[in-house]
Every structure is written in C-alpha cells, then in structure tokens.
TrEMBL record:
InterPro entries, A to Z: GroES-like_sf
Source organism per UniProt: Aureobasidium uvarum
Listed SUPFAM superfamilies: GroES-like
Protein's recorded name: Uncharacterized protein
Length: 65
C-alpha cells in the first residue's frame, strides 16, 4: 500500500508500507482508488492549522471499494 508523508515544508514523499491487519470486527478496510487534497491537508503540516493537530489521521475525501 502507498502512504504519503508531508513535512513542515509541505514536501511530499510516498512510501510503500504493509497493508494494515483488521483485528476488530467493528473495523473495515477500504481499498482507496481516488483521493482528494484539501487546504487542511497542507495547512496542518505547514503549521498553519492547529485545530486538528492532535488528530493522528484526519484523512477524508476518498473513493474506493
């Protein structure tokens, strides 16, 4: 699976990482086909948005199966 890392200068690097294992029957795994980018996606790493800074994964705007 691919994972994007965004640093404080908003440089993006793509990494290959293992697909997570689902261990809880209340969780699902979504195969993301397309994703979007919003202003919060680059404002938070740049330090311009602190309201969701404590959220480890605020990703959204995806389409998949």
């Amino acid at each position: 699976m691919k994972e994007a890392h965004i640093d404080a200068d908003t440089n993006v690097t793509i990494h290959d990482v293992p697909t997570p294992k689902i261990l809880d029957p209340h969780q699902i795994l979504v195969n993301v086909v397309v994703s979007g980018c919003n202003p919060k996606d680059w404002k938070m790493p740049a330090g311009m948005l602190v309201t969701i800074g404590s959220c480890p994964n605020s990703g959204d705007d995806i389409a998949g199966d």
